[in-house]
Design goal:
single chain; alpha+beta; six-stranded antiparallel β-sheet; 11 strands
């Protein structure tokens, strides 16, 4: 952002503004204006309009970044072992919601899922989720330590999680493995592997 001003005899000034990528209007050219005395007011109005537009564009850009980065989710993948070979498992239908809150559906009868992402509760040291796979249900409890990290002044803090323990009654899950016990800002990272027996997945 660069806009040196010189209101001398020539009243020459230049403006160099780079907007956020998502804005449709981008102004990076150097503007040079040499006007008569009766154009001074128009020049000032034009300059103020550009500066105001630039400020609002930067604010909207910061808000978008915060919306995308203020939640750390646990990545869960579904797998089977058949003849000692691990393979991804696509479930025909799955619903996931927080325990004691069936109205908080995270996934609602979604077909073909090979994994899910779970938002952990930043106000508690554990989170519990119900997995409904067709008519079968299982529970996953995740216990963790929490750590606050500052993103920026506009965005504030975000909670990172350090997994301490996982529990399940194994009604339908064969086993669960933690492959990464630190949950930070990475939307593609996998933290848990839930294994189903081949016979179970064949019946789904």
């Amino acid at each position: 952002m660069h806009y040196p001003l010189n209101f001398g005899k020539t009243r020459k000034f230049e403006i160099n503004i780079l907007y956020c990528p998502h804005n449709s209007l981008i102004l990076t050219d150097i503007l040079q204006i040499n006007k008569k005395e009766d154009m001074r007011a128009m020049n000032k109005i034009f300059l103020y309009g550009i500066i105001i537009t630039m400020v609002f564009s930067l604010i909207s850009c910061e808000e978008e970044e915060c919306d995308q980065s203020l939640r750390n989710d646990a990545g869960v993948g579904f797998y089977t072992f058949e003849e000692n070979v691990e393979t991804d498992t696509a479930l025909p239908s799955i619903s996931v919601y927080a325990r004691n809150r069936p109205d908080s559906l995270l996934y609602d009868s979604i077909p073909g899922q090979t994994g899910v992402r779970l938002p952990l509760d930043p106000t508690k040291d554990f989170s519990e989720f119900i997995f409904a796979i067709d008519s079968l249900h299982d529970t996953l409890q995740i216990k963790y330590n929490r750590e606050l990290n500052l993103i920026s002044q506009p965005c504030g803090f975000i909670t990172d999680f350090h997994i301490q323990e996982i529990k399940t009654p194994h009604h339908h899950f064969d086993s669960i493995v933690v492959i990464n016990n630190r949950i930070t800002q990475n939307e593609n990272e996998e933290h848990f592997k839930i294994y189903f027996s081949p016979s179970d997945t064949a019946d789904l």
